[in-house]
Amino acid sequence: MIGFQLTEEQRDFQKLARDFAVKEIRPVAEHYDETEDMPWEVIRKAHRLGLTTFYFPEEYGGGGVLDPITHFIIHEELAWGCAGIQTCIAGTGLAAAAIMGMGTEEQKKK
């Protein structure tokens, strides 16, 4: 039988992302929707919590969260706050997959 319960680590990440969405994203979401400004301060705060690098291997300064289910959980919670801001947060790491997969060791460390 397959279990569909979240692991303790997944619940911890879910709570971290939900709390961030409640405290940092939702209060400013309408402002950024109306002004179409880039939410740099929100992105910086997300970065400080590791929400922009959780999927990098630990040896390269990331959180080492490699399973896709946890990625989806984190992004779902951030998108609950605001899908546009979540996309901005996720977009900061778009090149990461290519660099992690095909980059030089120097590029990966950078």
Briefly summarize what is shown.
With 110 residues, this protein is mainly alpha-helical. The protein contains six helices and no strands.
pLDDT < 50 stretches:
none
CATH architecture classification name: Orthogonal Bundle
Strand content: under 5%
Rg value: 15 Å
Please give the count of helices. Answer: 6
Instruction: Kindly state the number of beta strands.
Output: 0
User: If you consult CATH, what is the topology?
Assistant: Butyryl-Coa Dehydrogenase, subunit A, domain 1
Estimate percent helicity. Answer: 55-70%
Average pLDDT taken over every residue = 93
Shape: globular
Major sheet summary line: none
What is the rounded distance between the termini? 43 Å
For this structure, what is the CATH class?
A: Mainly Alpha
Count of domains: 1
Classified in CATH, the superfamily is Acyl-CoA dehydrogenase/oxidase, N-terminal domain
- What structural class should be given to the helix and strand makeup? mainly alpha
* Order of helix and strand elements from N to C terminus: HHHHHH
